[in-house]
Request: fold
Amino acid sequence: MVTNMLRRGVSEQALGWYAERAKGGVGLVIVEAVWVDRFSDERFARQLRSLSLKIHEAGAATAIQLFKRPMVGGKPVSICGEAGLRQITTEELAAIPGEFAAAAKAAQNAGFDGAEIHGAHGFFLNQFFSPKTNRRTDAYGGSLEGRSRLGLESARAARQAVGDDFLLFYRHTPEQGAPDGYTLSDSIAFCQKLVAAGVDVLDISPSTRRGSAHAGLAGAIKKAVSAPVIAVGGMNDPAAAEAALSNGSCDLCAIGRGLIADAHWVEKVKAGKEGDIIACEECNEGCFGRLRSGVPIGCMHNPESGNEYLR
Reply:
């Protein structure tokens, strides 16, 4: 969940934010999406080491999400020349896996336990996978193989860069039966290839769906792959999370907004104090409402959220 606390480096606010959620009992903290080109900044890379150390000291493992912007040479590009932007070339696409590889290696050097390639939610990598947005006729478009190419090449390059003793995640959004989109069967085939390419954990995030019922999409993929699967969405409800785990829909549950509202969600559930949880009301005011303005996020229902560093 993007916090706007890493925009100018690893702030004290960011250190406090992530450490508090680790103290609150989560097993793994996945640090928000960071542009792959930022990892080449040595100062930022040094600051990331302080962040991974802080999370580890608080008792959790940690990975960091790797995000590719549609930019080349500091200028925006597009997949197919839409919105009046230049279409990214085949040669430029071939360089992107190396960017993910370098970022994953930098994350490893900064002390993280893993890195997650963000290929979901309609962003750049996910746009290549969808025939809705990918109308290319070169090796990166057309068939499912072509639309899968950039994601798979990025996963292979990252795995080669970090070796075997480092967790590699891939976040993917499954879709079902969209008239001009991709199907769940397409997602299953893609996820199988991701595991073969070296991905350790699949983060299945159907961001446009609400409620816990879509844990079944993660379950459909889990049945088809050997790697652990994360279910996303509706897991703020402890009963829904427990059901998803116990019925075999997933191996791990990801909680986003629930941990914005209450950093100690896990600790309270483990203690049988679900009634004490400060629940996310999906008002979008303190979190998403602040996101595009560049202001660090928090929660309208919990004044301590985002202010942990002031203690």
Summary: The beta strands are 28-35, 61-67, 71-72, 75-76, 114-119, 167-172, 201-204, 229-232, 252-254.
